[in-house]
């Protein structure tokens, strides 16, 4: 279940949720930066970072499963390792972290010029970020990334996270020997994607 987590800054609300049978529910909460002003700017809401962190802490205190979702783009890529270090130090109790490539839809689509970064170009940063989380024994997944844009060391962390009804592949994917393992593309990403898409031959 996706939520910005902010209302759970009220411990009473977190406690009420925990009192329900939520053992098979995980809350996916976006966190875009370890710097409050950057997170607040991205979500366009003053105070959002503090409220989100309080919400995550309360949910964790109550034992509610949490997935922190980090959508990677031009506005936060430079501090991705620092964000992962923040999570490792302060939010190590979360169930998992999902590092997500940008989906060009909604507000993101309207602001692509300011947000878009080719996943191929942040490979090294992603390797560093994943290593930080793994050293903290935090389960880490890569969502929405194509295998040909990643070093093979990261392939075990990728997940086929795009819903089948909006998942597509490009003509360039024909003949790729790992296509069945690759998450593919959002339908909305067919016209905006990495310039390094190419079939992989093992």
Describe the structure.
The protein has one domain: Aldolase class I (TIM Barrel), CATH 3.20.20.70. The chain contains 7 helices and 6 strands, in the order H-E-H-H-E-H-E-H-H-H-E-E-E. It has helices spanning about 10-20, 35-45, 50-60, 80-90, 105-110, 110-115, 125-135; strands at about 25-30, 65-70, 95-100, 140-145, 165-170, 185. A 4-stranded parallel beta sheet has the order 1-2-3-4, covered by helices on one side. Helix 4 (about 80-90) links the parallel strand 2 (about 65-70) and strand 3.
Q: What is the element layout, followed by pairings?
A:
Elements: H1 11-19, E1 27-30, H2 36-43, H3 48-61, E2 66-72, H4 80-90, E3 96-101, H5 106-110, H6 112-115, H7 123-135, E4 139-143, E5 167-168, E6 185-186
Parallel strand pairs: 1-2, 2-3, 3-4
Antiparallel strand pairs: 5-6
Task: Kindly list the characteristics that best describe this protein.
globular, alpha/beta, 202 residues, 4-stranded parallel sheet, 32% helix, 7 helices, TIM Barrel, 6 strands, two-stranded antiparallel sheet
């Amino acid at each position: 279940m996706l939520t910005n987590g902010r209302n759970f800054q009220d411990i009473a609300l977190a406690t009420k949720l925990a009192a329900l049978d939520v053992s098979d529910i995980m809350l996916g909460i976006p966190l875009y930066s370890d710097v409050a002003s950057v997170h607040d700017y991205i979500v366009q809401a003053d105070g959002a970072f503090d409220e989100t962190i309080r919400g995550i802490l309360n949910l964790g205190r109550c034992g509610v499963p949490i997935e922190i979702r980090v959508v990677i783009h031009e506005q936060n890529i430079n501090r991705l390792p620092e964000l992962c270090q923040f999570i490792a130090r302060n939010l190590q109790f979360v169930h998992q972290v999902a590092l997500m490539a940008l989906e060009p839809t909604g507000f993101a689509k309207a602001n692509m010029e300011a947000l878009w970064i080719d996943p191929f170009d942040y490979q090294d940063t992603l390797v560093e970020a994943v290593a930080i989380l793994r050293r903290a024994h935090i389960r880490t997944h890569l969502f929405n990334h194509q295998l040909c844009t990643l070093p093979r060391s990261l392939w075990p962390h990728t997940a086929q996270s795009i819903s089948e009804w909006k998942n597509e592949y490009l003509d360039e994917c024909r003949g790729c020997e790992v296509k069945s393992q690759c998450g593919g593309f959002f339908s909305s990403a067919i016209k905006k994607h990495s310039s390094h898409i190419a079939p992989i031959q093992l």
